[in-house]
Amino acid sequence: MQKLLRRAASYAARLGDRTSTGLIQCRLGALLRQLGDYAEAEVYLRSSLATHQRHPEEAEYIGWSQYELALLLHDQGDFPLALTCIQQAETQFKECGQERGLARVLDVQGMVYRDQARYAEALRCFEQAIGICVQQGDRLGHARALHNRATAYGALGQYSRAVRDFEESLRLFNELDRPVDQSWVMMDKSAIYILQGKLDLAEQSCQEVLPLFRERHLRRGEALTLRTMGDLYRQKQELQRAHNCYSESWAIFNALGDRMNIALTMYLIGSLFFLEGTYLEARNNYEQAQFLAQESVISYIQGLALAGQGDVAAVLRQFADAERHYREAERLLTGFSLNRERLNILYHLGTLYQTQQRYQEALDTWVQALAVGVEESSTQYRDIQDKVQALVADQHLEAEYRASRNRFNLV
To answer: Per-domain residue ranges for the chain?
Structure first.
């Protein structure tokens, strides 16, 4: 396919057919993006965009070039620039009344918001995209938006909704004979299986899709599957296998230049070192993840990496550093739908205060944790409740507890 498109682009250019040249360049850029050749993909997509922009009447073609460029920038983790391209594509599609294009742009916008942990905004985009696709009879766009909405539901812990959307997207992709798209869905669904504790099903799905991604040279799919397998083996306490998967995944993301996933994978490698008690290696990976996330304006990964550094500092009894990292991490995560992560940070910060006999601060921090919105049935929530009750009883902090509950609106 790649060779055919290259020949077609060359032939169209020799004929002086600028419109066909731009369309073929866009198609070739899209293919190269899927294969992980981001640098060459960008060259073709920007050339396609420049070709069509010389003819303002080609608003639809300009929109499709900007859409594909937005997808590329998303895959590279350049979210601010991706959102700029999305806005430009939206303007072009509205100008020419291209509803199908609007739906696809909304889908990519949702993907960017999801990967920034802006889940409420992501869900709005996916739902708008689904609505337009159903209205337009765009079954492929409908299936992709369902798949993406499922990943947002999964990130929010709404697993039954996520599985329902995964199943429906798989059904549509099967009817459309789209095996690669089915593999992407199965890979993301395996991540939900891990969160549900269905580790055998997760492993089966990953082992099924990994050979397909490799066979078709879809490097990003291969890297994401390997990282999911790293999560799986970490849950199974097979830490060396987890290391191997994370390392392979990181190497591919690094070769692709996918900044967001490089940072997230380094954070996960750091957390694995922390589990093993290799604290300096853990801190090194957390620091690198934080730097990359800060550079790419991905605040939630920066927050997670800072929390990891706080964990290391606490273990090493560097209490001032630990407190600083935890507080900054909690500040960065405030405003995101990451309540479980915030609960975990506040749990550890409260424990840090208790260790230093700063009981009032420990109490306030744990009461704040109980107010972040995590379901009361969670193990960590119940653990914090127990700690609060014990602390209040041991240190006679009944009045302070009432005041703290009022301050954080904890009913």
So the answer is: 178-255, 258-337, 338-411
How many whole angstroms separate alpha carbon 278 and alpha carbon 24?
51
* Residues contacting 64, CB < 8 A, separation 6+: 26, 89, 101
CATH dotted code for 258-337: 1.25.40.10
Span 157-175, pLDDT tens digits? 899 999 999 999 999 999 9
CB 340 within 8 A of CB 158: no
In a 3-state reduction of DSSP, which class is residue 178?
coil
Q: Are 237 and 252 in contact (CB under 8 A)?
A: no
Say which CATH topology domain 178-255 has.
1.25.40
Nearest to 151 by CA among 182, 124, 191: 191
Name the pTM for this structure: 0.89
Q: Concatenate the DSSP letters of all residues of 312-380 into one string.
A: HHHHTT-HHHHHHHHHHHHHHHTTSS-HHHHHHHHHHHHHHHHHTT-HHHHHHHHHHHHTS---TTSHH
Three-point CA angle 378, 383, 385, nearest 5°: 100
> Can 178-255 and 258-337 be said to share one CATH topology?
yes
Give me the DSSP letters along 201-258: HHHHHHHHHHHHHHHTT-HHHHHHHHHHHHHHHHHTT-HHHHHHHHHHHHHHHHHHT-
DSSP conformation class of 157:
T
Residue 242 burial class via C-beta count within 10 angstroms: exposed 0-12, middle 13-18, buried 19 and up = buried
pLDDT tens, residue by residue, 250-298: 999 999 989 889 999 999 999 999 999 999 999 999 999 999 999 888 8
